[in-house]
Design goal:
Length: 142
């Protein structure tokens, strides 16, 4: 059982784990050991509540196919057991992330004091720039 929250958990038979050969450098064992893990999770056929399913399917994530199957490839570690745990942790984190409801943003307005400070600083900056004018012949020290 993969525990998502106090009320939500995913049975092990809904998660398909298969061992595959990892990509990249691996030394002498590269062609012998299948240490990477492919995790496949069918969102539509799962026992997750509809709230989670809708949120997962609406994600713009390349790991979710158009048929609603989530595929996670874990090959960070050299052992199969650590990669298996990594894949399950990533699935759990993804499902927990969609459960978080974003707070709606309410637009705010600038205060009168902040507007006044901004205008005063612009005026001050303009005065500084005016002082950068061309120097006439009378003002120069020769």
């Amino acid at each position: 059982m993969l525990q998502i929250s106090q009320n939500v958990c995913i049975p092990d038979d809904e998660i398909e784990l298969s061992a595959i050969r990892a990509q990249g450098a691996g030394g002498q064992n590269v062609n012998k050991v299948s240490s990477a893990i492919h995790l496949r999770f069918d969102i539509n056929a799962s026992s997750l509540p509809d709230f989670y399913k809708k949120r997962l399917l609406n994600l713009k994530d390349q790991r979710i196919s158009k048929h609603g199957v989530l595929v996670i490839k874990a090959q960070k570690y050299r052992t199969q057991e650590k990669n298996r745990q990594d894949a399950l942790d990533r699935l759990q984190a993804l499902i927990k992330a969609v459960a978080v409801v974003q707070k709606t943003r309410r637009p705010t307005r600038a205060t009168r004091g902040s507007k006044k400070r901004r205008m005063d600083s612009k005026t001050q900056r303009g005065k500084i720039k005016l002082l950068r004018g061309k120097v006439t012949g009378k003002d120069r020290d020769l």
